[in-house]
Amino acid sequence: MKVNLKHFDNTQVTTQESLSTEMKTYYSKYLITLAEPELVHDQWGQKHPIPANGGKTIEFRKYESLPKALTPLVEGVTPHGRSLEVTPLTSTVHQYGDYIELSDVLLLTAIDRNLVQSTELLASQAGRTLDTITREVLVGGTNVQYGDGTKLVRSALVGGESSGNDYLTVDAVKRAVRSLKVMNTPRIDGGYVGIIHPSSSYHIMKDPEWQAPHTYVDTENIYADEIGRVAGVRFSETTEAKIFHAKDLTAASRTLTVASWTSGTKTVAVDEAITAAEATALVGRKVIIDGEVSEIASATAGAAGSASFVLKDAPTEAPADNDVVYPGEAAAKGRDVYATLIMGANAYGVTEVTGGGLRHIVKQLGSAGTADPLDQRATVGWKAIKTAERLIEQYMVRVETCSMFVDEEN
Q: CA-to-CA distance for 183 and 178, rounded, in angstroms?
């Protein structure tokens, strides 16, 4: 976005103490304008204003469906009618923010490119931060479909194999849509919407049923980052879609190897070395041994062949020598799992970024008083008040699948 300096009468110079009110308003709006496109997970939620002088809670509203009106009307008699049934759901808001410090060498003026560049970087950071806060609430929902619905747990999902992989398919989307339909989930613009990662969309976009946006909607009504539609779901693509990633078990190895198993103490000795710090980090982690997920209760550091860990519960099948121990927080063999959210209207609510939800803050050189006695530091930053809440679990389905790709945890 280009800045037309002719719009501003009071150009700031280094001898002035602060930016003009007009310039502050401009940059505040500029920050929000740049941050909003990053809020992919916010775009279909109920928008609620930040409460003014109302404490740290915000109230969302869950609207109950009305029962069928099957009793015939009596001629000339007004029926009793019904009241709108609204269930209030309160959520606690939290404040987030960050800033960039600019030295006196980088003079802070209205025309200084450093202020513009800092605002752009902070806007991106603010948008991604606030988007992640909403995302983490949404992916915590209880309405989950693993793959095409035939798998029961995340750890059973398969990826990266020659066959039998649980990649996102049109059939998986159709099953999720069916779940929404049977719950009478209200639609958004005549259909449902989805949030998808590029590593998942790569697979489903190959299907002949996939439609490009220009074939079903004009460009004025396209959603942010919309890439296409299938099975009545319009998808927005973002690299911020949730990835369930299992971290390596040690710094030197993603997996471990069973050296021996002691059933009485539920101890697994491993062929690899484990440091004291790694042993501490292993406690409470999930692992997959011979396809079964177990939790590590304790771990003992040691050299290769003498290091070990103890399982919280004995697995159904006793671990055998040379069995591979995979990290267990994601799919089979520790493979990444991608969450695709498919939802209808009123599934969740979020706070607005306008009206005090997101602010741009500039501090001039020397504004820190005695903390900056030589007027050497200025700052530009942002802060926001944010929360999100799932309102109706049945109106949102989280479809978990693998991909041929492996991405970093986000």
A: 9
Return mean pLDDT, the chain: 89
On whether residue 71 sits in a domain, the answer given is no
Residue 14 pLDDT exceeds 80: no
Residue 79 belongs to some domain of the structure: no
377 and 314 assigned to the same domain: no
Q: What percent of the chain has pLDDT over 90?
A: 66
Specify whether 198 is located in the same domain as 340: yes
Contact 362, 193 (CB under 8 A): no
The Cα–Cα gap between 127 and 38 comes to 5
Give the model confidence (pLDDT) of 88-145 as tens digits.
Answer: 888 899 999 999 988 765 554 544 577 788 899 999 999 999 999 999 999 999 999 9
Distance CA 197, CA 242 (A): 8
Residues with Cβ within 8 Å of residue 162, at least 6 apart in sequence: none
Per-residue pLDDT of 303-342, as tens digits, reads: 999 999 999 999 999 999 999 999 999 999 999 999 999 9
pLDDT (0 to 100) of residue 228: 97
Name the nearest CA neighbour of 308 among 361, 265, 358. 265
Rounded Cα distance between 174 and 161, Å, is 24
* pTM as predicted: 0.88
Does residue 4 sit within a domain?
no
Total count of domains within the chain: 3
Burial of 320 (0-12, 13-18, 19+ CB in 10 A): exposed
Report the alpha-carbon distance of residue 116 to residue 224 in Å, rounded: 24
Across the range 180-196, mean pLDDT stands at: 96
In a domain, 318, yes or no: yes
Q: Are 402 and 165 in contact (CB under 8 A)?
A: yes
Which residue range forms the structural domain that includes residue 89? 9-65+85-139+348-390
- Are 205 and 339 in a shared domain? yes
Q: What percent of the chain has pLDDT over 70?
A: 91
Cα–Cα distance between 383 and 396 in angstroms, integer? 30
Structure tokens belonging to residue 137: 């609430």
Q: Are residues 13 and 126 in the same domain?
A: yes
Instruction: Give 199's Cβ-side CA count (13 Å radius).
Output: 23
